């Protein structure tokens, strides 16, 4: 038995703020909105993904942004993504503390930290 991959990552978001997600996850990151199953739509939140990444944003009534815990996403053109995020008004924080790894952090519209790493 072995764990083969992560199916998705769920991040928390505040209630009623679903519309804010598209600016970051679709327009800046290039993911697509994924239709939630009918049985889960009443919970609120939104899902995004592509052929290799799935991010679910779920409503948390006691929402607090994840400032330390975070997903790390591999990106084939890190500089282009950084430029897209900056152009969309998001902050990019480069971090060279991990040897032999180009990476930066940015926050989604709710303040959740996300790490982006070069392939």
Question: What can you see in these coordinates?
Answer:
This protein is an alpha/beta fold. It is built from three helices and eight strands. The radius of gyration is 15 Å and the shape is globular.
- Assigned CATH superfamily: 2,3-Dihydroxybiphenyl 1,2-Dioxygenase, domain 1
Which fold name is given in CATH as the topology? 2,3-Dihydroxybiphenyl 1,2-Dioxygenase, domain 1
Q: Strand pairing plus helix content: what structural class? A: alpha/beta
User: Major β-sheet, in short?
Assistant: 4 strands, mixed
Question: What's this model, at a glance?
Answer:
The protein has 119 residues and is α/β, with parallel strands linked by helices. 21% of the residues lie in helices and 29% in strands.
Notable characteristics:
119 residues; alpha/beta; 2,3-Dihydroxybiphenyl 1,2-Dioxygenase, domain 1; 4-stranded mixed beta sheet; 3 helices; 8 strands; 21% helix; 29% strand; globular
List the helices and strands and how they pair.
Elements: E1 9-13, H1 18-28, E2 32-34, H2 38-41, E3 46-49, E4 54-59, E5 72-75, H3 78-87, E6 93-94, E7 103-107, E8 113-118
Parallel strand pairs: 1-4, 5-8
Antiparallel strand pairs: 2-3, 3-4, 6-7, 7-8
């Amino acid at each position: 038995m072995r764990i083969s991959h992560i199916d998705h990552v769920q991040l928390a978001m505040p209630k009623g703020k679903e519309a804010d997600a598209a600016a970051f996850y679709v327009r800046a990151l290039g993911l697509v909105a994924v239709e939630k199953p009918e049985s889960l739509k009443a919970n609120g939140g939104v899902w995004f993904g592509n052929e290799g990444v799935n991010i679910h944003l779920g409503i948390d009534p006691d929402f607090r942004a994840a400032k330390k815990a975070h997903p790390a996403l591999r990106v084939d053109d890190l500089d282009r993504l950084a430029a897209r995020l900056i152009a969309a008004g998001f902050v990019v924080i480069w971090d060279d503390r991990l040897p032999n790894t180009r990476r930066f952090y940015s926050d989604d519209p709710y303040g959740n930290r996300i790490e982006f790493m070069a392939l």
